[in-house]
């Protein structure tokens, strides 16, 4: 118990309008996504775990209390917001080493080509014109899938400024070493079940052991190499 | 369950819905909104629509204050209000309200106070009209449910 359902995507939605937050939240839920909504860019950064320096808002540092339990697969933000605009938020996310891989989508009620191209150039994956429709959200899945697959393949090779990654690598190497002795134990177990089972499976099990036995060297001949 | 009563109510509901589209009160976005309602969120449309009407009342009130004194109009505030109203009416599918907002924005852009006041009056009228229409629609829905029937899917072409 307590296992996380890794199959569901978690989206962080940013909009200063309560009405729009309610809309995007329902749209995302209906698209089978988990949603967290915040009403400003700075709250979004806080949620991600990026601490904004009070003195100089251009200085971002990674908070020691990163929300590691909450993995965000996508950020969808309104463009026009007081204070930090969606564009500003996009820039900050893409400038941070820890979060630049998170896909960002911008929403706007205004169709301004210059605005759209500027956002896409800065690294936004999509630009949605409001009102956003259910059909628009189907475009999000491929972007979110990319990060999930990327994360899984990148695990041992990750270069991070944070200190978390180092112990992770060591643990994995140890796990690999342990597999080999287990392998030997498994084979003796198979022989035991073959002897004790009284069903018709016995013959099959016997046949299997015999066939593998031919191709495999005997126990005392196995040399474990790391 | 009186199937004849349910069928009559369902027919009424369908006809009323279609008329709202035909008369331009609602557009396709309202259909999109209904798609988001399901067993998990059975009151979604009513909630969103209610939020929208609350927004309308507040924004209209704020804008009327900004437009009150002829020598001291805060067009920036009015523009912001119109922008919000246009956005939410567009998201809800409130077609007539949205169209007034488009005209309203144009008056604001050229700082036409008289024009703005006319648009303000019109937007106030339109949202209140839509509010009563949708209330009638929701009442029909309730009647259908209470009679044991289901809300029909209405096809708007």
UniProtKB/TrEMBL annotation, chain A:
Keywords: Nucleus, Phosphoprotein, Transcription, Transcription regulation, Two-component regulatory system. The keyword Cytoplasm does not apply. Pfam families: Response_reg. Residues 147-174, 187-226 are annotated as: Disordered. SUPFAM superfamilies: CheY-like. It is found in: Nucleus. Gene3D superfamilies: 3.40.50.2300. The keyword Nucleus applies. InterPro entries: ARR-like, CheY-like_superfamily, Sig_transdc_resp-reg_receiver. Residues 10-145 form the Response regulatory domain. The modification 4-aspartylphosphate is found at residue 78. Its main location: nucleus. Residues 191-200 have a biased composition (Polar residues). Residues 150-168, 204-219 have a biased composition (Basic and acidic residues). This is Two-component response regulator ARR8. It comes from Camelina sativa.
From TrEMBL, chain B:
It comes from the Eukaryota. Functions as a two-component phosphorelay mediators between cytokinin sensor histidine kinases and response regulators (B-type ARRs). Plays an important role in propagating cytokinin signal transduction. The modification Phosphohistidine is found at residue 83. The lineage of its organism: Eukaryota, Viridiplantae, Streptophyta, Embryophyta, Tracheophyta. Signal peptide: none annotated. PROSITE patterns: HPT. The keyword Electron transport does not apply. This is Histidine-containing phosphotransfer protein. It comes from Camelina sativa. Histidine-containing phosphotransfer domain (HPt) contains an active histidine that mediates the phosphotransfer. Keywords: Cytokinin signaling pathway, Phosphoprotein, Two-component regulatory system.
């Amino acid at each position: 118990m307590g296992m996380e359902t890794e199959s569901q995507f978690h989206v962080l939605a940013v909009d200063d309008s309560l009405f729009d937050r309610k809309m995007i939240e329902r749209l995302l839920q209906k698209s089978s996504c988990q949603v967290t909504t915040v009403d400003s860019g700075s709250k979004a950064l806080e949620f991600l775990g990026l601490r904004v320096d009070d003195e100089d808002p251009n200085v971002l540092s990674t908070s020691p209390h990163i929300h590691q339990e909450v993995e965000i697969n996508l950020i969808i933000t309104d463009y026009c917001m007081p204070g930090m605009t969606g564009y500003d938020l996009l820039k900050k996310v893409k400038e941070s080493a820890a979060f630049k891989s998170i896909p960002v989508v911008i929403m706007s009620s205004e169709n301004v080509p210059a605005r759209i191209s500027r956002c896409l150039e800065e690294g936004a994956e999509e630009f949605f014109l409001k009102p956003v429709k259910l059909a628009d959200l189907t475009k999000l899945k491929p972007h979110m899938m990319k990060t999930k697959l990327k994360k899984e393949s990148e695990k041992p090779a990750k270069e991070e400024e944070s200190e978390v990654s180092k112990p992770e690598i060591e643990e994995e190497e140890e796990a690999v070493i342990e597999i080999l002795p287990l392998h030997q134990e498994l084979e003796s177990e198979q022989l035991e079940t073959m002897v004790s089972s009284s069903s018709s499976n016995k013959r099959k099990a016997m046949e299997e052991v015999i066939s593998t036995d031919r191709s495999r060297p005997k126990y005392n001949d196995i040399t474990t190499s790391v | 369950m009186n199937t004849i009563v349910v069928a009559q109510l369902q027919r009424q509901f369908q006809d009323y819905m279609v008329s709202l589209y035909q008369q331009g009160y609602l557009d396709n976005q309202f259909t999109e909104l209904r798609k988001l309602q399901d067993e998990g969120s059975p009151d979604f449309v009513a909630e969103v629509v209610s939020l929208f009407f609350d927004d309308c009342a507040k924004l209209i009130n704020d804008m009327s204050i900004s437009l009150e004194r002829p020598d001291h109009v805060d067009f920036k505030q009015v523009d912001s209000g119109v922008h919000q109203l246009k956005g939410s009416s567009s998201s809800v599918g409130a077609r007539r309200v949205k169209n007034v907002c488009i005209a309203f924005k144009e008056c604001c852009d050229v700082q036409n106070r008289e024009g703005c006041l006319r648009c303000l009056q019109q937007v106030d009228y339109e949202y209140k009209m839509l509010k009563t229409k949708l209330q009638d629609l929701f009442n029909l829905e309730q009647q259908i449910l209470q009679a044991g029937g289901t809300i029909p899917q209405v096809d708007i072409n």
